[in-house]
Input
Amino acid sequence: MFEYFTGPKYVWNLGVCATLNNGGLIDEVDRACRPAREAADVDSGSRLFMQSWKAVADQVADQARASEAAGHLRTAGQQWYRSGLYVCQAERMLSNSDPTRRAFYQQALDAFEKVFEIADPATSRVEIPFEGTTLPAYFSNASKAGEPVPCVIMWNGLDSTKEHMYTSGWAQEMGERGVSVLMIDNPGSGEALRFGDLKSRIESEQWATAQIDWLESRPDVDSDRIGLVGWSLGGYYVPRAAAFEKRIRFIAVWGANHNWGEVQKKRLQREGENPVPHYWEHVLWVWGFDDVEKFISYAEGVNLDGVVERITVPFLIAHGANDRQISVEYAHRSYDQAINSPKRELRIFSIEEGAAEHVGLDHMPHINAYVADWVEDTLAELDSGAVRAR
Output
């Protein structure tokens, strides 16, 4: 993995790789990173990191406004995209107690609204009804004339947001294949957490049911071809949902997360890398706990033992051989237990080829293309009857 920073700064290095893979420019990323190079660690340096990235994001946003005013909308769209990308990568590094965090996140939301307005009309912001409130989402519509097309729901993990999913480019890949994508902030993530105070839970199938209900109400979605994909902690949420919500026709994960509760016990012993600074503060915020010991007890239920066997649809597990957050052993565990999937596949990405780090962030286009191709092939097999759900 490309490591811009030296010392105990894995979190920042992973963010730099993700940014460069997702459309960031090396000059802008370098200028955003330089002020934080001398920080002792990611916890103490997180605000400095945010400020330096915000300075570049603000500069690019000013350029976007100037381009827009001059009528150069293609350039403006590219600049708004990069500004939003830089904000969403830096915002996730902040402590939840930072009073500027929510306003900074809003800056990313505003930037992507401009992207949709002037550069990507196929994508729009939508709200999914859920338990008396709504879940914010982006819907990338591949239907050209209102005809029903397949759709994939895309879920994030512990610390990512729908903006990270959008900037990954995966929805655009699926759009080129005639498949719509619903990128959503579930409870415990993104806007649902920051502005709605919705906390995560073990029973992810409850979110899936609400989202499929919404998709089935749309005439431009083929309700018989709705799939579900996710990364990182989505490697738990997605298989869990598919085990109980039987309208899901196929699933794929970037990063297995078979027993996340067990991983948390290991983190207490300082095993493995943390995905964000201020780790335990972030975890308690996501799950709605104020005590680590109580949370660890609850988190024992965040595992897929006895669950994966209930999956009766095609199932792809993509995992990096050098994932320093979630051991590759969990990928094998999910695969070995998915005995009732009519098409199960385990794809381990090696260090030599890239995409070997957590969810393939070191070479995201590589793993993205593999998952997109698998979805395309699986849809064709479902249509032909070559693969059937059990």
Q: What stands out?
A: The chain is about 45% helix and 15% strand. The two ends are 40 Å apart (CA to CA).
